[in-house]
Design a protein that fits this description.
This protein has 19 helices and 32 strands. Strands 15-19-20-27-24-23-21-22 form an eight-stranded mixed beta sheet. α8 (243-249) packs across α15 (518-529) and α12 (394-411) crosses α13. The radius of gyration is 31 Å and the shape is globular. The chain binds one RNA strand of 76 nucleotides through β11, β12, α8, β24 and β27.
RNA sequence: GCCGGAGUAGCUCAGCUGGCAGAGCGAUUCCUUCGUAAGGAAUAGGCCGGGGGUUCAAAUCCCCCCUCCGGCUCCA
C-alpha cells in the first residue's frame, strides 16, 4: 500500500497510508491531537475531519483552540437553528446556512417569520443544545439525497449544480434531524456554548434579484456566554457610535425627506467640514495641486467620449434629462471637467505634472434601498484631484500621494491598509494598458514597502485603483481615499503634451481622493471619535460656565480673549453641576468654570472632557495652549495632564 | 430597485382591541444666584409622513405614494 505525503503548518512533511483521513493524520502526529481534532484545513479550505487527505496537501488540524474553530461551531449553530425552526415550523424549507465573520445566517423559504418569532426559536435551540445530541456525518447516495429533498427545489438545485458529479453526498445528522452539508461541524450540539438570534431580513436565492426571495435569519454563537456578552456589548457600542444618532444629537446634519441621499450640513457640522476642507487644502498645496472649480451641470455629451456616460447610464446611476432638445446631466465624477481644464491650453513636458484639485460635488442615483446616513448618499463632495503626468513620473507621483495619505490618516488616529483593485468587466481600454497601469501601482506600493491585498475585478472602469481602508476605533474598516492610474481617458479625449522630441504625447492621469468624500469621511469620523472630536475639529471648542449671573460680564471678557476659537458662554439660569453635565453631553472638549474667585483673581478653572481639572489658570496660558493644540491637531485635549 | 419592519411635539418614545393626542428631555417665563455630571414651578409646542377610502366617528381599519431602519443587490 502506497503512502501519501502531506505538509504540516511548520513546513514538515508527513507520510501516511493512502485513504487516511484528516483525523488519522492527527492521530499519527499524536494521540492527544487526534482526540482533540474537530476539523481540518486542506489547502486553505475548511473540511470535515473524516475527509481523506491527498498527496501534496497542505494540512492544518483544527482543534478547539484554533482560529477556525469558531467558524465550525457557528456552522453547527446554524444547523441547530434550522432544526429548531423546523420543530416549530415544519413547513420551513431550508436552503443554505453558512457561518460568517460575525456569526451565521440561514436562508429559509416557505415560512413567515418576524423578530417576535425569534424568542421561541431561540428557546428551542437552547433545548437542542441542552440535549447535547451527537452530530454525525453520514454519506448518502446522490439519488437518496435527491429523494429526501423531493419537496425542496433549493436543495435539489444544490445537488444538481455543486454536487452534480458526486456519487455520494454528506449529511449531518443530529437527533431526528438532518441537513445536506459539506461540514465540518462540532461533535455534538452541546459543544455550542452560547447562541443568539439577531434579526430577520430577506435575501435572494443565490444573491440574484431575479430569483426567489428568501427569509434570512442572522444569529451568532460562541464557545461561552462571556464571549457572547462581549459580542453584544460591542454591538451596543457600535449602536452608540452610530453617526446618524450622534449627528442628530449634536445637530451636525440632516437628510430630510425631500432630499433623499442629499445631506444638509447644519452650522456645527459645517464648522467641522470647513476645518476638514482647510486641512485638505493644505495637503493639496503640499502635493502641488492647483484648486479649480467645475460645474455640476453639463451637457451629457461631456461624458460620452470618456466612457462615463455609458457606464453610469447603464447602471441607472446618472441623473440626466432632456431640456430644450438637449440632454443634460449632473456630473457623476469630476474627471471629464478636469480633463477639459487641462485641454484648454497646450502643455509642454516641462509643465508636467499639472495637478488640478477640486472639492467637487457629484450626484449619482444610488438605489433607494442603499441610502444610509452619510455613508451612502446621492449627492457628495469628493476631495478630488487629477494629476496629468508623463509616464516616467508615475512612480514618484503615486509615492508622493501615498506618503501624504499616510500622514493624513495618522493625524486622525486611523490605522490604514491598502488594497489593489484590478480590471473589471466594465473596463475600457486594452488589456496591455491595464497591465502596465496595474504594474505601476504595484511598483509604487512595493517601493514604499506597503502591504496590500488584491481585489480582482473591483477597479473603476478607466483604470486600476489603490483603495485605502481606514480602521476605526472599534476595529471596523472603511474604504476612504483612492489613488487610480488612468491611461484611457487621456487617449479618449486626445489630451496631449509636447514631449522633448517635439511630438505630441498622451499624458497619464492620476485620479486621487484623500478623504474620499466629505460626507462619508465625516460619518466615519463621528463613529471613530464617538462625537468626541479633537479640539481642532470640535464645533464648540470651549464653553465658559459662569457660576452665577454676577460673572456673566467676566465670562464674556474671557470669551473675547479667546477670539478666533469657537467659544460659547453658558448663560442659562442653571446650577454649575447642571451646566457641567450639559457640557459633557454636548461633547465640548474644554469647559472654563468662572465664579467669584476667578473673576477676582483674573483666572479660570479648566475642566476637560475627561473630567480632569486645573484651577487658578491664567487665561492667556490656556489660550496659548489651545492655539498649540489646534495648530498641532492634537487628538485629545491635553491642557490638563 | 427587491423583501421585511417602522414613521405621533425640536429629541427619545407611549397611545394603535376605532370615541377629547400623552410622557420624559429640550424650549420659553417666573422663582432660585447656586463651586465641578440634572434646583423648583408654570407655559407654549401636533396636518399623528402625504393622498384616497370604510365609518356617526380614524393616530388607530383598508388601498396607493413618500421617507427612514434591517437585509439583499450595488458602492466613495
Amino acid at each position: 500500500m502506497s503512502d501519501v505525503t502531506v505538509t504540516l503548518p511548520d513546513g514538515s512533511e508527513l507520510s501516511v497510508p493512502e485513504e487516511s483521513s484528516v483525523e488519522d493524520v492527527a492521530y499519527e502526529i499524536g494521540p492527544g491531537l487526534g482526540s482533540d481534532t474537530v476539523a481540518g484545513v486542506v489547502d486553505g479550505d475548511l473540511v470535515d475531519k473524516a475527509e481523506e487527505v491527498a498527496d501534496g496537501d497542505r494540512l492544518v488540524i483544527v482543534t478547539e483552540g484554533s482560529d477556525e474553530y469558531l467558524q465550525v461551531l457557528r456552522h453547527s449553530a446554524a444547523h441547530v437553528f434550522a432544526q429548531a425552526l423546523q420543530r416549530r415550523h415544519p413547513e420551513a424549507e431550508l436552503t443554505i446556512g453558512p457561518p460568517t465573520d460575525e456569526g451565521f445566517y440561514y436562508d429559509v423559504a416557505g415560512v413567515d417569520l418576524d423578530e417576535s418569532d425569534l424568542d421561541e426559536i431561540e428557546a428551542e435551540m437552547a433545548e437542542i443544545i441542552e440535549a447535547d445530541y451527537d452530530i454525525e456525518r453520514v454519506e448518502r447516495s446522490w439519488e437518496t439525497a435527491f429523494d429526501i429533498y423531493a419537496d425542496n427545489e433549493y436543495k435539489q438545485e444544490i445537488l444538481e449544480t455543486e454536487a452534480a458529479d458526486e456519487e455520494t453526498v454528506s449529511f449531518y445528522v443530529q437527533d431526528d434531524w438532518q441537513d445536506l452539508c459539506r461540514g465540518p461541524h462540532v461533535d455534538s450540539t452541546g459543544d455550542i456554548g452560547a447562541v443568539k438570534l439577531l434579526n430577520v431580513s430577506s435575501s435572494y436565492w443565490r444573491g440574484d434579484e431575479e430569483n426567489d426571495t428568501l427569509t434570512r435569519v442572522h444569529g451568532t454563537a460562541f464557545e461561552s456566554e462571556d464571549d457572547l456578552d462581549e459580542f453584544i456589548e460591542r454591538r451596543e457600542e457600535a449602536k452608540e457610535r452610530d453617526h446618524r444618532k450622534i449627528g442628530t444629537e449634536m445637530d451636525l446634519f440632516s437628510v430630510p425627506d425631500h432630499s433623499p441621499g442629499c445631506v444638509h450640513f447644519h452650522p456645527d457640522g459645517m464648522a467641522i467640514r470647513r476645518e476638514l476642507e482647510e486641512y485638505i487644502r493644505e495637503k493639496n498645496d503640499e502635493l502641488g495641486y492647483d484648486e479649480v472649480w467645475t460645474p455640476e451641470l453639463n451637457k451629457a455629451e461631456l461624458w460620452k467620449p470618456t466612457g462615463h456616460y455609458d457606464t453610469f447610464t447603464e447602471s441607472g446611476e446618472m441623473f440626466n434629462w432632456e431640456q430644450d432638445d438637449t440632454e443634460y446631466g449632473l456630473k457623476p465624477m469630476n474627471c471629464a471637467n478636469h480633463a477639459h481644464v487641462y485641454d484648454s491650453d497646450t502643455h509642454s513636458y516641462r509643465d508636467l505634472p499639472i495637478r488640478l484639485s477640486e472639492f467637487g460635488t457629484c450626484y449619482r442615483n444610488e438605489q433607494s434601498g442603499e441610502l444610509s446616513g452619510l455613508f451612502r448618499v446621492r449627492g457628495f463632495t469628493q476631495d478630488d484631484g487629477h494629476a496629468f503626468i508623463h509616464p516616467e513620473q508615475i512612480k514618484e507621483e503615486i509615492r508622493g500621494t501615498l506618503g501624504v495619505v499616510r500622514d493624513i490618516y495618522g493625524d486622525f488616529g486611523f490605522d490604514i491598509s491598502y488594497k489593489l483593485e484590478t480590471r473589471g468587466d466594465d473596463a475600457v481600454g486594452s488589456e496591455e494598458i491595464w497591465a502596465n497601469a496595474t504594474d505601476a501601482l504595484k511598483a509604487a506600493l512595493e517601493s514604499e514597502g506597503l502591504e496590500y491585498d488584491i481585489e480582482a475585478g473591483e477597479a473603476a472602469f478607466y483604470g486600476p485603483k489603490i483603495g485605502i481602508d481606514a480602521h476605526d476605533a472599534i476595529g471596523r474598516e472603511w474604504t476612504v481615499g483612492t489613488v487610480q492610474l488612468d491611461f484611457n481617458i487621456p487617449r479618449r479625449l486626445d489630451l496631449t503634451y509636447v514631449g522633448e522630441d517635439n511630438e505630441e504625447h498622451h499624458p497619464v492621469m492620476v485620479h486621487r481622493a484623500l478623504l474620499g468624500t466629505f460626507e462619508r469621511f465625516m460619518g466615519i469620523m463621528i463613529e471613530h471619535f464617538k462625537g468626541n472630536f479633537p479640539t481642532w475639529l470640535a464645533p464648540e471648542q470651549v464653553r465658559i460656565l459662569p457660576i452665577s449671573e454676577d460673572q456673566l460680564g467676566y465670562a464674556h471678557r474671557i470669551k473675547n480673549e479667546l477670539d478666533g476659537f469657537r467659544v460659547e458662554v453658558d448663560d442659562r439660569d442653571w446650577t454649575i453641576g447642571r451646566k457641567i453635565r450639559a457640557g459633557h453631553d454636548d461633547r465640548v472638549p474644554y469647559m472654563l468654570v468662572v465664579g467669584g474667585d476667578e473673576a477676582e483673581a483674573g483666572t479660570v478653572s479648566v475642566r476637560d472632557r475627561f473630567e480632569d481639572e486645573a484651577d487658578d489658570v491664567d487665561p492667556e496660558r490656556f489660550r496659548d495652549h489651545l492655539a498649540t493644540e489646534v495648530e498641532s491637531r492634537t487628538l485629545d485635549p491635553d491642557f490638563v495632564d
